[in-house]
Amino acid sequence: MAVTRETAGWSYVGFEVYRLPRGTRIERATDGQELCAVILSGRADIAFGQHTWRDVGTRPSVFEGAPDAVYAPPGGSIAITGSSEICEVALCWAPAAQGVEAVLLPSAGVRAFKRGSGRTERTIHNILMEDRPAESLLVTEVLTPGGNWSSYPPHKHDTDDPPRETYLEETYYHRMARPEGFAVQLVYTDDRSLDEAIQVRDGDVVMVPRGYHPVAAGPGYDLYYLNVMAGPRRRWLVTTDSDHRWQLD
């Protein structure tokens, strides 16, 4: 599964997911792009330039703990080889001129925290957000209990107007704890020129070029999603839908 800037018709975000049986290898050049390789489940050996990291990955599924990841700058080649029976890896891309030094981002350095309360509570794992260096990429993952809302109250980041809001393209990669489960994601603008309600199944990707984009997990179906964001500046500044802003009080 792959979303490229060309197929999406946008400028910043690329996203891919691979399932690698033990010994299976993929190699990708990072020409003009930086990469965050997130180990969704299982383990892999990862090499970039002079760096080699063995058995990267600490969790059997996306619902069990925080992820290991590797950041790679432009101008090199990354090789990822499955070292467990099955390894699932997500490749998160954004344009970059220089990037920063290649580095392992271990799960031990990812602090889980809660956002929201009651029916909007969810758990956040910031993988490569503003507290860690990169040139363009922002990467985070969210676990939402069944029956709860997430990315809520609805917010958007489609206007480059800091410090009020920044422009960021975004992908949502969804996984369900029960594969038969579902969630619903809305993507809409104030004028409703974009107004979609999308039934999300296990493994689906939702592209958010603009607009508000809340998510509801079906009751009984815990939801995971991995967010990849990038834009002209590396800041996450959002505007909440004015109809629902009162819920922040």
Index terms:
249 residues, mainly beta, Jelly Rolls, six-stranded antiparallel β-sheet, 1 helix, 22 strands, 47% strand, globular
What this model shows, in words?
With 249 residues, this protein is mainly beta. The chain has one domain: Sandwich (Jelly Rolls), CATH 2.60.120. The chain has one helix at 5-8; strands spanning 2-3, 14-21, 25-29, 33-41, 44-48, 51-56, 69-72, 77-82, 86-95, 103-105, 112-115, 122-128, 138-144, 149-150, 155-156, 169-176, 183-188, 195-200, 205-208, 215-217, 223-230, 239-240. The longest helix is centred in the first third of the chain and has 4 residues, at 5-8. The protein is globular and about 50 Å long.
Mean pLDDT, rounded to whole units? Answer: 97
Largest sheet, in brief, is: 6 strands, antiparallel
Annotation, overall tally of beta strands: 22
What proportion of the residues form beta strands (DSSP E)?
over 45%
What is the CATH C level class, in words?
Mainly Beta
Give the number of helices.
1
Q: Considering DSSP H and I runs of 4 or more, what fraction of the residues is helical?
A: under 10%
The neighbouring-strand order within the major sheet is: 1-2-9-4-7-10
List the quaternary state of the chains: single chain
CATH superfamily: Jelly Rolls
CATH domain fold name: Jelly Rolls
Indicate the low-confidence ranges by residue numbers. Answer: none
Whole-angstrom Rg? 17 Å
Number of domains: 1
Shape by Cα distribution: globular
CATH architectural group: Sandwich
- In whole angstroms, the N-to-C terminal distance is 40 Å
Structural class: mainly beta
SSE order, one letter for each helix or strand: EHEEEEEEEEEEEEEEEEEEEEE
